[in-house]
Structures are given as structure tokens and as C-alpha cells.
Design goal:
Layout: H1 3-14, H2 28-34, H3 41-44, H4 46-55, E1 58-60, H5 69-75, E2 90-92, E3 97-99, E4 102-105, E5 110-113, H6 126-132, E6 137-138, H7 148-163, E7 167-173, E8 180-190, E9 195-206, E10 211-222, E11 228-240, H8 249-280, H9 282-285
Antiparallel strand pairs: 1-2, 3-4, 4-5, 5-6, 7-8, 8-9, 9-10, 10-11
Helix pairs in contact: 1-4, 7-8
Length: about 325
């Protein structure tokens, strides 16, 4: 396959809407037919899957969570200590990447290998688990930053549960332990209603400057009888955190979470105002509310309409030139 074709396929993967970059294992037969002439295609575009998963903050359920303890002990050669439970969802991102498709989880202090194209759900049969997660090993999260544990385990947990029921979050120290990166992702999928959406927010807290910066991203796809997608983002300027040496770790974590809450509430209010403006302004002006006959068209019967007669009771209709 030419480099141009591989680049096109990679761009297609990286641009997939939320919840619609399905694992290749779900479409194995179709993919085999499409790539019969290019058997190396999947290997060529594998970096695109990795980039997509990390940028979109994909989530995975690790063996060892409250629902998968038995699976963890069956498949993992390095089982987690008894009593250590991982969160229900673990993030895949550049912030917790150890390289070579390996990532770490701050909650369970373990690392794991992740196969990006497959994305097999660990709750599926055991023979598929090995393709997703293997060699779960114990790792230490190297940070001494004040408020890290309280932020991760308490205040941020309570905040996401209140505002994002279907979400995942984590806090990661930077490589030099000078800052903390806070990541939140919330997904809401409704394929039966033809829409999917994702919220992503990332913040960097600098203890030395007592400041918080970040970015917010929203991606929504609606595809019933059409294809409409909203992608929007907002940079969060640096804001000061009231952090003094005498402030307790729990109080510091509460201040950081309070700042995050204020930023995200303001952004959601801006989005709501923008949607209202679009609905009452630009979208309303795209076409007439009613046709020139001032009657609503019954679209399910449109194939049976007689031109200029059924519409407008035979006196006016689509045969007229004034439409």
C-alpha cells in the first residue's frame, strides 16, 4: 500500500467520532476482505489507533477491579495484592504512558500492556483478554506532591460522580514531579437515537506557581438521516490557587477541585447560550418554518402527493413559481 493511502486510512481512524472507532475484532471478517490486497495495512496504521486512543482518552477495565478480581487471578502472572482494587475505568493517555504500549494506573499502582487496535473488553472471554492486557505488574507512582492522594481519591472522585455519571479520571505527576496533570473524560453514547458524545478536560497544576491551566474539549456526533458533528475546545488561562504552606493536603485538593468546577460550569453555560443562539438564529434562518402554503408537509406521505393539488388543497402548491 502506498504511503498516501496509509496516511488517508490513518486520518480516517484518527478522525472517528466518539464511540465509533470500533475495535478491529468486531469487524475482523470485513477488514480481511477490505485488506486482502494489502495484508500489512493494519500493522501500518497501528500508530493511528494508538494516537486516537491516547488523544480521546480511551478507557479500559483492568483485571483486579471490583468486578474482575477472579479474572485477574486467572490471567495475570503478577497478581495485584489482595485488597487492592482498581477504579472501574482506567485511562489510556500520553500522561500515563510508559512507552511500548505500556501504561500505569495510579489507583492500583500497576502497569499493563494495551493492544490499541483490538480494544478487547476484559469482560469478554478469557482468551481475548490476553490481547488487551498482559503482564500486570506493580509500579510505584513517584510523587511527593502535596494534595495528590486527596485530589485523586476524594475531591475529584466526588466531583466527577456528581457531574459526570459515566466518566473516568486520574491525576498523574509529570516526569520530573514538578507538576500534576488532572484528566477527566466523560462519554455518553446513544446509538439507538443516533448520537454519541464525549467531554474531555485536562489541567496542569503547578505547585511552585500555585496556578492551574488547562483545556476543555467537547465532541458530539448526530447521524440520524444526516451527519452533523460538533467539535469545540477552550483553553483555560492560568488561574491562581489559594495554596499556602499551612494549607492541609485535603484543603489544597478542595481548592483545586473548586477551581475546576468553576471553569467547567462557566464553559457549559457558554455552550448552552451558543446552542440557544444557533437554534433561534442561524438554524432558524436556514429555511422557512412552513412552505408558501402555510401548511406542514407530511413527509411520510410525500411520495403520494400530486403536484400542486394535494399540497394546498388543489389551489396552490409546488407547481407554482412563487416558491
Amino acid at each position: 500500500m502506498s504511503s498516501e493511502n496509509a496516511a488517508a486510512v490513518s486520518a480516517f481512524i484518527e478522525g472517528a467520532p466518539p464511540g465509533e472507532a470500533r475495535p478491529i475484532t468486531e469487524h475482523e471478517q470485513d477488514i480481511q476482505k477490505l485488506t486482502a490486497e494489502h495484508p500489512q495495512l493494519l500493522k501500518t496504521v497501528e500508530p493511528a489507533f494508538e494516537k486516537y486512543n491516547e488523544l480521546q482518552l480511551a478507557t479500559v477495565k483492568l483485571p483486579g477491579s471490583t468486578k474482575d478480581v477472579s479474572v485477574m487471578h486467572i490471567k495475570s502472572r503478577h497478581s495485584l495484592p489482595l485488597g487492592i482494587l482498581t477504579p472501574s475505568k482506567v485511562l489510556i493517555s500520553s500522561y500515563n504512558s510508559l512507552g511500548d504500549h505500556k501504561y500505569y494506573d495510579t489507583e492500583s499502582q500497576s502497569s499493563f500492556l494495551f493492544d490499541h487496535p483490538s480494544q478487547v473488553n476484559p469482560r469478554q472471554q478469557q482468551e481475548k483478554i490476553r490481547y488487551l492486557i498482559s503482564r500486570t505488574e506493580s509500579v510505584q507512582c513517584p510523587t511527593s506532591r502535596r494534595g495528590f492522594e486527596e485530589l485523586r481519591s476524594h475531591t475529584l472522585s466526588a466531583y466527577t460522580k456528581e457531574h459526570y455519571p459515566s466518566s473516568a479520571y486520574s491525576v498523574y505527576p509529570t516526569s520530573d514531579d514538578s507538576e500534576l496533570t488532572i484528566v477527566v473524560v466523560a462519554n455518553k453514547y446513544s446509538p439507538s437515537n443516533f448520537w454519541n458524545g464525549r467531554w474531555r478536560s485536562t489541567y496542569v497544576y503547578s505547585p511552585s506557581a500555585s496556578s492551574l491551566t488547562g483545556s476543555l474539549k467537547v465532541d458530539v456526533h448526530y447521524y440520524e438521516d444526516g451527519n452533523v458533528r460538533l467539535t469545540t475546545s477552550k483553553s483555560v488561562p492560568s488561574s491562581s490557587i489559594a495554596a499556602s504552606p499551612s494549607l492541609s493536603p485535603s484543603a489544597l485538593a478542595a481548592e483545586i477541585t473548586k477551581s475546576i468546577s468553576g471553569v467547567e460550569k462557566k464553559y457549559q453555560e457558554e455552550l448552552n447560550k451558543g446552542f440557544t443562539k444557533l437554534s433561534e438564529g442561524e438554524f432558524k434562518n436556514l429555511r422557512r418554518q412552513l412552505p408558501v402554503t402555510r401548511q406542514k408537509i407530511e413527509w411520510e406521505k410525500v411520495g403520494g402527493y400530486r403536484l400542486g393539488q394535494d399540497i394546498g388543497s388543489g389551489k396552490s402548491g409546488y407547481g407554482r413559481r412563487d416558491i
